[in-house]
Amino acid sequence: MRPAVSDLFSKTAEELKQTFDKKFFQRAKFIPSAKKTIAIFCALKDFIYQYPLESGRETLPVGLESLACRLEEQIKNSLCFLCQEKADCARCEQNARQITQDFILALPQIQRLVISDVNAAYEGDPAAISPVEPLLCYPGVTAVTLQRMAHFLHARGVRLIPRIVTEYAHSLTGIDIHPGASIGPAFFIDHGTGVVIGETCVIGANVKLYQGVTLGAKSFPLDPNGNPVKGIKRHPNIEDDVIIYAETTVLGNITIGRGSVIGANKWITQDVPPHTKLN
To answer: Which CATH topology does 28-174 take?
Structure first.
């Protein structure tokens, strides 16, 4: 005899629940919503880009306040889920409110950085007819804009949400930038597909990367249990005014000196002096 449909679903649901321990389920309600987070940051990107708003500029503060309230909820969920004390604690709520306020106050500075990126893209690409073209069309500008917002939260100890944002950008643009990477002004990723920038990268001003460039880690030190050691500097430092052409791989905690030009398809694991040209 075939089992009743209700029994079938009940059995499957019970087995699925066994995947996670009880502690996970106690905290699961605090997992930030990826769908809501992506919607918030897409709207914040529009505020930074200053798209024409049909309802008029006088509604800007109201719309921004609404986004801030929604963002605070997701930040609180993230903090509570990872809290070492207990879920839904008052400290997490206070921290979420302060981080959200600091983030909103930082948006004009983030916008200035984005404008510098847009100008770098326009000035660095002879095919661009105006700065509006990279703003609206270039995947590199989109990926870096979202990363700059995510980086602010990552630098203040928020986890999960920054990765949701940058992995959304990765899926959208094919450009993978960890929210921990520190990126200076006027950063331009031309074409963009396949670019990877690791967590501890430090990138200076006026840097230009082409498609397929990897700024990655050479190796992962292991702890006594054989697990990768976390929280150490393991990615490259790219100084000001550097250009790295397509499909070049730069690995490890090394420095590409100021003003250097690295040709395509290079494998680099040692420091490069300033003003070097590798053809």
So the answer is: serine acetyltransferase, domain 1 (1.10.3130)
Rounded Cα–Cα distance for residues 277 and 247 (Å): 16
> For residues 166 and 146, is the Cβ–Cβ distance under 8 A?
yes
pLDDT > 50? residue 54: no
Tokens 């959200």 correspond to what residue? 100
Residue 53: the pLDDT is: 47
Question: Which residues face 197 on adjacent strands?
Answer: 177, 215
Please state, as a whole number, how many other Cβ atoms lie within 10 Å of the Cβ of residue 125.
17
Q: What is the pLDDT of residue 57?
A: 57
Question: In this model, does residue 25 exceed pLDDT 70?
Answer: no
Q: Give the whole-angstrom CA distance, residue 184 versus residue 60.
A: 28
Q: Which of these CATH numbers, 2.160.10.10, 1.20.1260.10, 2.60.40.1930, 3.40.50.970, describes 194-279?
A: 2.160.10.10
What is the reported pTM? 0.90
What gap in Å lies between CA 180 and CA 184, rounded to an integer?
13
- Tell me the C-alpha distance between 15 and 17, whole Å: 5
